[in-house]
Specification:
Blueprint lengths: L11 H17 L3 H14 L5 H13 L6 H16 L3 H18 L12 H11 L5 H16 L2 H27 L5 H12 L6 H20 L4 H4 L2 H15 L8 H21 L1
Length: 277
């Protein structure tokens, strides 16, 4: 019997996770150029309406659920396979090929060697979706996915926690500390949420940012009563300029330059607060 070979480059779930990790790494080491390239690829190929986005949703359906009862898990597998079967495979192949070429050209082929903790699960799902997988092998793989879907969340966390700690946190902690030494807690919080915002389209980040901008506006506004500020016309003008910047922020169109601006305002607000105390 011919043995089916899994192609990582055609595994949409794997590629998406690898891109997310590359984006995280690039932001942490301040490689703005590479971060911009990765972000552009994610936004272009995983936008709503793209065949790649539809396939990614199928991967997520079978990869992110857990603690299900057997009946629900079987139904989920059945309906996800049906959903995947409705994807235009020719369109999907064209999008994948174009994305692979762009990754090779702009990021580098090393991305395809990225360690992903749940890679085995993603490879299993990929072969379930494939028409090239023999029936017997596909049934056995579906049983594996079924077991994962019915596994308790605490068991799954215990199983996956060690590789995540070792290969993500340990890999980036030193670079993170070296590059971002001296960052305030609120600056770290903003940066972390911005990095993760690509996963949900930025919804949670926009909610957080709106709240953070309100906090910063209040703190900067309070600084106008500080003796060092109100006795200096230039300081008053500068402080009012910062307030106008905050007031004119467009949360819906948040850019890399906006991120740097908010980080600076966070530092400024902290300085005002220290002076006030």
């Amino acid at each position: 019997m011919m043995k089916t070979k899994h192609n990582k480059k055609r595994n949409t779930g794997f590629i998406f996770e690898a891109l997310i990790r590359e984006l995280t790494k690039s932001v942490l080491v301040k490689n703005v150029k590479k971060a911009s390239k990765v972000r552009t690829i994610i936004k272009e190929y995983f936008a709503n309406g793209k065949a790649l986005k539809k396939e990614l949703d199928c991967y997520k359906a079978l990869c992110e659920a857990d603690s299900l009862d057997g009946y629900t898990a079987e139904k989920l597998i059945h309906h996800t396979k049906a959903e995947h079967g409705g994807i235009n495979q020719k369109k999907l192949f064209v999008e994948q090929s174009k994305m692979i070429r762009q990754i090779n050209r702009e990021i580098g082929p090393d991305l395809f060697s990225t360690f992903i903790p749940n890679y085995r699960a993603l490879a299993t799902i990929s072969q379930i979706f494939s028409d090239q997988t023999p029936v017997k092998k596909k049934v056995l793989m579906e049983k594996t996915v079924l077991d994962n879907l019915t596994q308790r969340i605490d068991e799954k966390a215990e199983k996956n926690l060690k590789p995540i700690d070792d290969l993500v946190v340990k890999t980036f902690t030193n670079k993170y500390n070296d590059q971002y030494v001296g960052l305030l807690p609120e600056q770290r919080g903003l940066l972390n949420r911005h990095i993760l915002s690509i996963r949900d389209g930025g919804t949670d980040f926009k909610v957080f940012l709106s709240s953070e901008l309100r906090r910063l506006h209040a703190e900067v506004n309070e600084s106008l009563v500080l003796e060092d500020v109100k006795s200096d016309e230039q300081m008053i003008e500068n402080t009012n300029s910062v307030l106008r910047i905050i007031e004119n922020f467009d949360v819906a169109e948040f850019s890399q330059d906006n991120l740097k601006t908010v980080l600076k305002i966070q530092k400024l607000a902290n300085e005002y607060k220290k002076n006030g105390n």
